Amino acid sequence: MRPRRPPGGGRLQRWLRGGLLGAMLAAATVAGRADEGAFSVRDGELSRRDGIVYLDARLDYRLSDAATEAMENGVPLVIVQAVQVTRERLWGWWWDAVVAGLTRRHRLQYHALSRRYVLTNLNTGDSRSFRTLNALLPALGEIEDLPVIDSARLQPGQRYRVRLATRLDVDALPRPLRTVAYLSDAWALDSGWRQWELTP
């Protein structure tokens, strides 16, 4: 008895092997012809309650045409949101020390049968579905009351910062597509760090 394939698996394999993959690579290398997308950290705010430091932030996500096409052909996309608390070292030429950190991972999928976009928090397993990608992306960009560090760990007289970045996890892509993604700016979706001062 043959093992059952996961739903959509055959469709994904056909797409990865077919001409769409080559066409996507060709399109991605022609400047100005495709939307290459952008990730950014719009704003953020720190607060304290009951001895815990919390972060609220808004992130803006715009997927590239290549990433959107891949997702709508069955390729899950994994988005990473990384938060770090750093302490400034006494020597200015040395990297700041990371004293706390956490990573949130979300998976974006398109279900062709239901025509729904599904956002799954891979840390908790919670999922939500949306009728459009434009409805999903703002939900992905909302960070509310995220605990980042216990205030007791902050030493008086030291300088601390909380920093946040988000990126598309290229390593989570299927192997054939991963090779393409490493060569294309359309898959290099990374906000870079944005940081805020944290007073002990």
UniProtKB/TrEMBL annotation:
Reading the lineage from the top rank, the first entry is: Bacteria
A Pfam short name: DUF4390
Q: Which InterPro entries does the annotation name?
A: DUF4390
Output this protein's name: DUF4390 domain-containing protein
Q: Which organism is it from?
A: Sediminicurvatus halobius
